[in-house]
Amino acid sequence: MDETQFKHGNEEIALRPTAAVIDLDAARSNTMAVRRKVGEGVKIMAVVKANAYGHGLVPMAKAFLDYGVDELGVAFLEEGILLRKAGIRAPILVLGGIIGNQIVHFLDYDLQLTASSVFKLQQIDDVAAQTGRRASVHLKIDTGMERIGVHWYSASSLFETALRAKHCVIRGVFSHLASSDSSDPSFTETQLARFSEALDFFPRHGLPMPVRHIANSAAILQHPTSIFEMVRPGLILYGVCPSMRLAHALALRPALSLRTRIVYFKVVRAGASVSYDRTWTADRDTRVVTLPVGYGDGYPRGISEKAQVLIHGKRYPVVGRITMDATMVNLGEDSAHNGDEVVLLGAQGDDCISVEELADWLGTIPYEILTMINTRVPRSYVPLPAETRDQRPEIESLNGG
Ligand SMILES: *Cc1c(COP(=O)(O)O)cnc(C)c1O
Fold first, then answer.
1. Do strands 135-142 and 168-174 pair parallel, antiparallel, or not at all (unpaired)?
2. What is the pTM of this model?
């Protein structure tokens, strides 16, 4: 991490010393790692839903496209519209379910739709016909997630409807895995078998096989047979592992760190309590600093009793309740000054607080930690080092030009 970048960064960081700092070189390295893992002939759809897992929707979408991904995936229509309004021209699939009155907006913004039922596919075809356009559609098969999609045992009805949908171009057929990160592969294998069973429709009718995609991050790491013509990684592109068990499956570099600065230093006298509900009392005179960050930024209150932060490369415990806008840290006998950098998530010196570790404190998964970091926290991007930028043509050639 380039310290000067954070120190002299943008105006927003001067106004708010708390920032999510995103290392674009790490994002690039993760994209290259996924590219090597899946091979050159497989398309990569970078999943950038939920503000790119907290990293910033538009900057990350542009970055991943620069680093050689082929397409983008988002959960909701409005996320796709934001990408188009930012001038992004790459194919964008909205992975989530749709409601009829949204279809016209998909066509207006050239966004690919997920057809998750026969009725929805017909609706898409009708709206496309009425507006004189063609809709780009991916057909969603439910192989065991029970979220959206036509069950694998009914998939032929969706495929037959698709053959008649003259105003739709079928760009792909996909499904989603419910437990690809598990150490037990059996349900993933069941889902893959169901997916194949549904897709048999195409060769059986003498039709070309559409683009198939089912692999998310964990499947890319541990289920090579789930890698078809396209993959849909999210979490690993940001350098975070879906499960500790898979930590060594691919060399990943976490892209995001959450940093702030000390705004207050004091000595808490023995016997005095700190913060709401008085959950922590100093047993001796103790140096305590206050950080201008709290659960109102997505630094969760639920880790009040467990969290540690890095100051001068050393770990210190959070004391008392994390409040909406402030967090107190016990320095013990050590000292620190107003303005000194504090790392809540990420590396400082030789130590690092990983997203996985913070998720563990809260009893949740890394995905939730990243997406909790909210809009009050400015995002700051550390650009690629100059020598890496010079390698761009090589990245492009990896991706077939
Ligand atoms: C979120 C999501 C992904 C990406 O999942 P990761 O585990 O982050 O790789 C892929 N496909 C669908 C349908 C999703 O909702």
1. parallel
2. 0.94
